[in-house]
Structure formats: structure tokens, C-alpha cells
């Protein structure tokens, strides 16, 4: 079995560039007919699981391989005994080593794994990064082999986690309370005395009318309202967006970060699209960054899409 080749793990994620891997020699085929490459370097956080994609480009004749042996990069393991063929789970099961760092996948038939002539096949495998793996590094040493001497290197990267944002600004002061209602009316004044009754002949004068009662005092003002309080809020976040600046009528949307992936649609020039994250993919006019659309339609090349705010790594 091939020995894992170590790759220095001190490279910052932003400095990692996509490169063609060493050509693999498939079983039962011309060694120059099949070439393996890693189209983009996936970013997997420590303790997380992601998928590595290896592209197998075939020449003019069909290539057949009966066995795959896949070694995990340093500080990673295989969470499942499967691999993927053009994005779908392969029907052929695999076996894992005791430390889950080696997958062996046997076709079990003479037909083996057939690579069509003049085509590109996407091979994938799930990887879990150790929880104590250092952030902001490239984990190398992974190998994909179709024979004893046919190996191709691959790697994964761990993202850098930024510091937690500050708390939001405090809320505005509350408005003062409403003024209290006026007090209740004061007690009524006493009734005046009645005048003496006059002689029967002449009617006596009416007694004086008692004084009118004073009005009660005005009630006290109500208690002022409690000032408003702002709940603790998280940091301010913006949904990343990008404007299509293609010189033509639009920009193609692909199923992966490269023009070799299937075209799933087109975004018109001038459209502003919501994007989820970015990765290093196939260079387009010198720019290797690709944006993943937030609506799940696929990927667009950053060379012809201007980011309107900061876009995080995938």
C-alpha cells in the first residue's frame, strides 16, 4: 500500500492555490490516458466534515480500474466507507482500516470502474478533520491510487475563525411617563343656618345661603415612566452580494467552481445576486475565486462578479 506523503501544514488558507496532481497510472490502461487533479481545495473547520473532489480526465480510449486505495491527509479520517462517482454514492462498498485513514474499494467484477473516453469524471470522498487540528493550515499527505505505482496527492484546508464581534450600541432612553390624573373633588361645604320664622302676618326674610364648598386640591402628578432598555444584541451582519459585470449579456452558472462543471443557467449583466461563500477553483482570466450562490443554483466566477460586501470562505 502507498505511504502517506506529508505536506507542510503551516500554509495560510488564502495562500493555497489549485495545482494539477501527479498523473496516476490506472490499471489496464495507457499510463498517459488518465490524469488526476484536485480542482479546488475544500475548507473544513476542525471537528467538521466535508468532501474532497478529485477530477479524473480521460483521453481518447476508455480506461478501466478494478481497485481504488485512498489515504486520508494528516489529522483527518474517513467517516464512512464510501466514495462518490460524479456526485452520487458509488454502489461499490469500501473497507476502512482500524484507524479510519485508509479506504480500499474493490470493484468485484472484471468490468471494474470504467472511465469513458474523452470525458472528465468527478471522484469524491468524505473527510472529517480532527477537532484539535490547527486553524488556518493546509493538511496534506492524502493519496488517491488506482494501482501500486499510480498515486495522486490531495489536501484540505482549515479556515481561520475571527474574533467575536462587540455588543451593539445601547438603546435609546425611554420616554417619560404620562401625567397623573387630577385628584378627586374636595368635600362639600356646610349648609348655612335657616333664618328665624317671621310672624304669621308678615313672612319672615329668608335666611342667608351658606357658603359654597371649596374645590378639592389638584391631584399629584403621575410617576415618570421607566427609561427604555436595550436587550443585548449580536454583531452587525450583512448578507454578502455580488453584481454581475460580465462584458457580454450575462455570466454562466455552473454546478461546481470551474468551467468544466455543467452549466445550470445564466445570470444577466447588472444583476445583484446573494452569495453564500467563496472557494479557490479553476482560474478564469487569472482569478481563481468562485462564489457559491445563496439560492443553491450553483457557482459563478468572481472574475466577472464584483462583491458588494465581504464574502466569507466556504
Relevant terms:
single chain; 314 residues; mainly beta; Immunoglobulin-like; SH3 type barrels; five-stranded antiparallel β-sheet; 20 strands; 0% helix; 34% strand; elongated; disordered N terminus
Task: Describe the protein.
There is one protein chain. The chain is mainly beta. Among the domains are: about 15-155, Immunoglobulin-like (Sandwich), CATH 2.60.40; about 240-305, SH3 Domains (SH3 type barrels). The chain is built from no helices and 20 strands. The strands form 5 sheets. Strands 1, 2, 5, 6, 7 and 11 form a 6-stranded antiparallel sheet that branches. Strands 8-9-4-12-13 form a 5-stranded antiparallel sheet, with no helix packed on it. A 5-stranded antiparallel sheet has the order 19-18-17-14-20, with no helix packed on it. The protein is elongated, with a radius of gyration of 40 Å. The two termini are about 35 Å apart.
Amino acid at each position: 500500500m502507498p505511504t502517506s506523503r506529508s505536506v507542510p501544514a503551516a500554509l495560510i488558507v488564502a495562500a493555497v492555490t489549485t495545482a494539477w496532481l501527479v498523473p496516476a497510472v490506472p490499471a489496464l490502461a495507457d499510463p498517459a490516458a488518465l490524469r488526476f487533479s484536485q480542482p479546488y481545495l475544500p475548507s473544513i473547520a476542525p471537528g467538521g466534515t466535508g468532501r474532497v473532489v478529485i477530477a479524473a480526465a480521460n483521453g481518447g480510449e476508455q480506461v478501466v480500474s478494478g481497485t481504488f486505495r485512498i489515504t486520508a491527509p494528516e489529522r483527518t479520517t474517513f467517516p464512512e466507507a464510501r466514495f462518490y462517482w460524479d456526485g452520487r454514492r458509488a454502489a461499490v462498498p469500501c473497507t476502512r482500516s482500524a484507524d479510519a485513514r485508509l479506504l480500499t474499494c474493490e470493484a468485484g467484477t472484471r468490468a471494474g470502474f470504467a472511465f469513458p473516453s474523452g470525458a472528465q469524471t468527478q471522484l469524491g470522498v468524505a473527510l472529517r478533520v480532527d477537532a484539535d487540528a490547527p486553524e488556518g493550515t493546509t493538511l496534506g499527505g492524502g493519496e488517491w491510487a488506482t494501482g501500486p505505482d499510480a498515486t495522486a496527492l490531495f489536501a484540505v484546508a482549515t479556515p481561520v475563525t475571527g474574533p467575536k464581534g462587540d455588543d451593539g450600541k445601547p438603546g435609546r432612553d425611554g420616554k417619560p411617563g404620562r401625567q397623573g390624573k387630577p385628584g378627586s373633588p374636595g368635600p362639600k361645604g356646610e349648609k348655612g343656618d335657616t333664618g328665624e320664622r317671621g310672624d304669621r302676618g308678615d313672612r319672615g326674610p329668608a335666611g342667608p345661603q351658606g357658603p359654597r364648598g371649596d374645590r378639592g386640591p389638584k391631584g399629584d402628578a403621575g410617576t415618570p415612566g421607566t427609561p427604555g432598555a436595550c436587550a443585548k444584541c449580536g454583531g452587525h451582519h450583512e448578507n454578502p452580494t455580488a453584481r454581475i459585470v460580465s462584458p457580454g449579456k450575462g455570466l454562466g452558472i455552473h454546478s461546481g467552481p470551474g468551467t468544466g462543471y455543467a452549466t445550470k443557467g445564466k445570470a444577466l449583466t447588472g444583476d445583484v445576486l446573494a452569495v453564500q461563500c467563496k472557494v479557490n477553483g479553476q482560474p478564469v482570466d487569472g482569478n481563481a475565486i468562485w462564489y457559491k450562490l445563496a439560492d443553491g443554483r450553483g457557482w459563478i466566477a468572481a472574475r466577472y462578479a464584483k462583491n458588494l460586501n465581504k464574502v466569507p470562505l466556504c
